[in-house]
Amino acid sequence: MSEDAAKMAQLLSALTHPNTEAIREAEVALKPLLKDARSVPALVEVLKARGTQPDAVRHVAAVVLRKRIGGHYAKFDAPTKTALKTEILSVLANEPERTVRNGAVGVAATICRLECSSGDAGGAAWPELFQFIAAAASDANPDARELAFLLLSEMTETIGLHLKPQFPSMATLFANALTDTEVKVQNSSVKALGQLLSYLADEKEVENFAALVPAIINVAAACQKRSDEDTVSVTLDVLYDLAYSPSSAVAVHLPATIQFCLGCVSDSNLEMGVRDSAALVIATLAESKPKMFGKDDSLLSSVIETLFNLIENSTESAAGALFESNPAWREDLKEDGGAGDDDDDDDNFDSPTETSMAQGTLDMLACELPKKYIFNPVVSRCVTRLTSPHAHHRKAGIACLGVIAEGCAEPLREHLPDVMPHVFAAAGDADAQVRECACFALGQISEHCQPEILSYSSQILPIVFALLDDTTVAVQATSCYVLEMFCERLEPEGVRPLLDPLVRKLAAMLEGTTKRSVQEMAVAALAATAVAAEEEFTPYVAGVAALMTKLMALTDEKMYTLRGRALECMGHMAIAVGRDAFRPYFSSTMQCACEGLTFDSTDLHEFAYAVFANLAKVMGEEFSPVLGELVPHLVTVIGADEGQLEQAEEDEKGQFGALDDSDDEDEGGQYVLHVRTALLEAKKGAITAIGEMAAHTGASFVPYLEETMAVLKKAANNWHPLIKVEVAE
What are the Cα distances from residue 602, in Å, to 74, 241, 597? Predict the structure, then answer.
């Protein structure tokens, strides 16, 4: 071994040991060596040193060679390049160690990209490599056949950009591999072909390979049976990318795609993440191919029935999607012995469940498919299940009715006389989960079937009043949600007959429960009631304000959302009853809002900005005394940078990322932009607040106009469209 190669091998060896400091020292020593073009033949020599160098060191040599060869390849003359390519092909043909061979695959793919990108010879830049692949794909040794497709999978972009004339012959290679007798050959071909299909999904050339989609699905289905989730996941990713393809040659495989995905969705042996990916493919096909999907009655029927079955066979709350991101709901549900009670890992609440997966998919179908295809099949199943003697069937029936309320709002409005009796019956069901889902459905219908649903107020409100007394926390909280959705749309004359009992009931609930979910929903319902009642809410302001004042004094971090909801309620009451009636509560509300700005909680900050906007609108000139304190704060928030560049972690840069070519360019390494989405929302709220202050405080705002306009001009160029829109408004 040459002196250069021996020195290189010694340093590479340090990279294979589990000693962080030794690895750093080796990387520092390697960097200057790797800047020299002579490092390439030295790395190749280490890579080939089978028997004299450990396999781990030779593998690292391949990894580093792949990273660095791009910076030196153009410096080599033609004979040197040819010799290098010959050496790499020799390693691929003769190397028995899989990790080293796979490392050489990466090197070969990089050289091929460099050759094709140079434009000297087009697709014939390295003909020997493609001859090697063709020979390996038909070799009797399954390792060789697998190697052919490992090479192709590493060359997706190169193939897609530069090798289109070879697509027909490649299609033949893939077709043979997908029916190979060896599983590993099938799987490697699925990965390689899948990546190429994803790359070509929006291009006409995808048609060269579209006929192979059923064969890919067949391989994936076999993998599913033997619990090979990796290949199933790869296939689902490909099918997702193909869902958007405009090619009719791809679209003809929609039924086979959906049937495969439906099998994955129903397979309880698969991880939920894989099942959810399959559901996403179905939902995406509904969005991208709505007519084709909807017209296939049998297929659509299978999908709907599967989704219903998932909901009815699960013990989870089917209304939980309402509160899936609410920590209070999670905690109260556990304490009440609900779904997830035995699970101590809160992270599981962020993961898909059978019910959330099924409901999310059905919601997408209802929103995207033409209503003439989706409405009747779903509603007929809902009605059938609502007459079942089995509670879990009734739960699924009423839950699914609520799920489609948004997407099928138009036909549902027309059929309310047929549907509402079933909803009312479910609200009085003996089973708590059915009652909870009935509340969910009532809330969804109240939100999306306006104004027709208002004619049922005399029936809905007494039913909801009764449910507020339910012994189940989930039913109580969901009942408050119904009131919030329903009362938001009522006119004062509509809410007047029930205003007194409604306010008293919600106030009593608020005082009588320790469940945060119920408290938060009750406060939201009170706020909605105030907005609906307008000035007629005036007699209740003192009592409700007293309750809100207690909640606005909460300092426990777990109670921040409840504190914010109470502050929000005060702002809504101010809008409802006007300046004179709210004046006694203005100072205390502002004090609470300003105090919230001192807490490390962007949620509390958002609530504060919203109440500033409402109170500025209501109080007008009387809001002026606080401008001196608030405007500088809001200007600072609006001008703040909601994203920051941070140096990438090692796993974000890849293995031995410190040895990438980018270090030669003195860029200080690789950086990642981290966007703080919570700050984006806070910034949006601050812009709204400062806008309302400017609009309603008159001449008092003039001293702050210049700095405000300066920061808004800057925000108008923000990268996020929501910020731009808010500034424009």
Answer: 52, 36, 8
Distance, CA of 631 to CA of 614 (rounded, Å): 15
pTM of the entire predicted model: 0.81
Q: Distance (Å, rounded) from C-alpha 208 to C-alpha 170?
A: 9
Judged on CB neighbours under 10 Å (0-12, 13-18, 19+), 302 is middle
The C-alpha angle with vertex 74 and arms to 68 and 78, in degrees rounded to 5, equals 120
Place 326 in a pLDDT band, splitting at 50, 70 and 90: low
User: Measuring CA to CA, which residue among 532, 456, 527 is closest to residue 489?
Assistant: 532
Residue 515 DSSP class: -
Give the whole-angstrom CA distance, residue 34 versus residue 19.
22
- Quick one: which of 236, 167, 238, 163 has its CA closest to 199? 238
* Tokens found for residue 183: 């599983």
Structure tokens at 263: 């099998």
SS3 473: helix
CB–CB of 544/502 below 8 Å?
Answer: no
pLDDT of residue 668: 45
111 near 85, Cβ under 8 Å? yes
Among 64, 65, 62, smallest CA distance to 92 is for 62
Cα separation, 654 vs 652, in Å, equals: 6
Residue with tokens 């695959």: 105
Q: Which two tokens stand for residue 671?
A: 């950086």
Report whether 634 contacts 593 (CB < 8 A). Answer: no
* Residue 371 in tokens: 């209503």
Burial 188-227 (b: 16+ CB within 10 A, else e): bbbbbbbbbbbbbbeeeebebbbebbebbbbbbeebbeee
- 617: enclosing H helix or E strand: helix 602-619
Cα 217 → chain centroid:
25
CA gap 177, 189 in Å, rounded: 6
Measured from the Cβ of residue 288, the count of other Cβ atoms closer than 10 Å reads 17
Which amino acid does the sequence have at 523?
Answer: V
Query: Which DSSP symbol is given to 125?
Result: S
What 3-state DSSP class applies to 226? coil
Residue 314 CA to residue 647 CA, distance in Å, equals: 44
* Integer Cα distance of 2 and 220 in angstroms: 48
Check whether 647 has a pLDDT greater than 60.
Answer: no
* pLDDT tens figures, 440-479: 999 899 889 988 998 898 888 888 888 888 888 888 878 8
